[in-house]
Amino acid sequence: MATIYILGSVIICGTIAVQGQSSCSDKCTYCLGTRCVSCIDGYYPRGKGCVQCISLNCRTCDTSDVCTSCKSGYFGASCANPCGNGCINSTCDRNTAQCQCTDGFYSAYCNQACAAKCQDVCDKTSGVCRCQPGLYGQHCHSNCWSRCAECTNSTSCSVCQAGKYGPTCNIDCNPVCSDGSCDIHTGLCTKSCPVNCNDCVDGDNCTSCVSGYYGTKCEKPCPLHCLDNICGKTNGHCHDCIHGYSGVMCHVSLCPYNCLSCIGFQCNSTGSKCTSEGLCINGCVTDFIGPSCERTCPTHCAPVLNGSRCSSDGVCYNGCVLHYYGSWCENACPAQCLSVGTENRCVDNGTCREGCIAGYSGERCEHRADAFLREDSKSASTAGMVAGSFFGGVALTIACGVIALVVWMKRKKPTPANEYYNTQTFGAGNEASKPDQPKSDAESNYTSLGGNQEERHTYSSLDQ
């Protein structure tokens, strides 16, 4: 199907591939004449057809085989890494792998399953949950004392087994209590009230609940982040929240998303993940750094078996992914370096490990072959100009030397002496007087000098 595209003032005619009706090659979705311009997912255009991306998980890639987007469920520069098992729709951020978790999973990458012995859904950031009866701890890994029905630590019980009361449930209830139940704190009979009732009417309608519960029968636990585990009996609204949380149910975290709630099994006694300034107390979730866990490890850090890929200053622990180098893996090996097997194309300073692809040279393959030819031609032309200038200068110097020598020799030759004589006329016929002619017959021809006139003499030069 022919299509006209207008780009600025340029009109481009092309063809959109329609099965059985287009001149475009297989897997090409748009072509200009016989040249393919765009391809189906997983391929990129080259000449008349399409070439498969280097990674099967690439949705789109460019001509240098670099993935520009990944198929659903994968992330990374080469789309080689699967998203966490608990990511909603198996979709995660291509660069950071972060995603939103389904119920039963937690962490920034939703790759951690909630503890199997959680009584309900765990916190999707920290994994903390309310444990099944008889267990406690962040992951419900510890057993309560044998007399406890429920507990939150190793030193006291929050609910006793039937017929017991006291902090460690080591005291027997009064035998007169109906069904042997009594208040855990006072030992007073509860009149067969539901568990967690302080007092009740008609057997199952609680008038007040023990700390940490609410509802008609005190059957619902208070929200996890209520201060001192206290909430309203009717609606469960927290009277106040632990630091770092807000909302009527204290469900809104004010701390940075990537702050850790605990370090191993040791949790902050306040229950908060951050200080009032927003600084993370227990460190960051995997692959995040900074006082507020606001930065991620460099994109091209190589994976590690457990924990973060980089130190607090961003230096990669396990080096770089293939074809990158530098402390922060911020530098890509030159594209013209020759690739051999699974080794990096270049060493730590960017020098190509196995030489260059055809047409390039240099330690980093930065020189093109035709650039050397132009440089050689330019060098030959420059050498000719230099040689011409040199020999021209030599010739000019010799000529100047010869001229200077001639001038010097002429100046050295003696100047001839000049003799002068007084020109006189003798006799009326202006004939020169002969030697034997008497001087008395001669007449001198003088010019009268009057006033301030200067005397003038006429001389003839006699060359020797």
TrEMBL record:
InterPro entries: EGF, Growth_fac_rcpt_cys_sf, MEGF10/SREC1/2-like
Ranges in coiled-coil conformation: none
Domain EGF-like: 23-51, 52-80, 82-111, 113-141, 143-170, 192-219, 221-251, 328-366
SUPFAM superfamilies attached to this UniProt entry: Growth factor receptor domain
GO molecular function, a single term: scavenger receptor activity
Ranges for region Disordered: 421-464
Listed name of the protein: EGF-like domain-containing protein
Source organism: Dreissena polymorpha
UniProt entry keywords in alphabetical sequence: EGF-like domain, Membrane, Signal, Transmembrane, Transmembrane helix
Signal sequence annotation: 1-17
Residue ranges of the TM segments: 383-408
Comp. bias (Basic and acidic residues): 433-442
Entry keyword annotation includes Transmembrane helix: yes
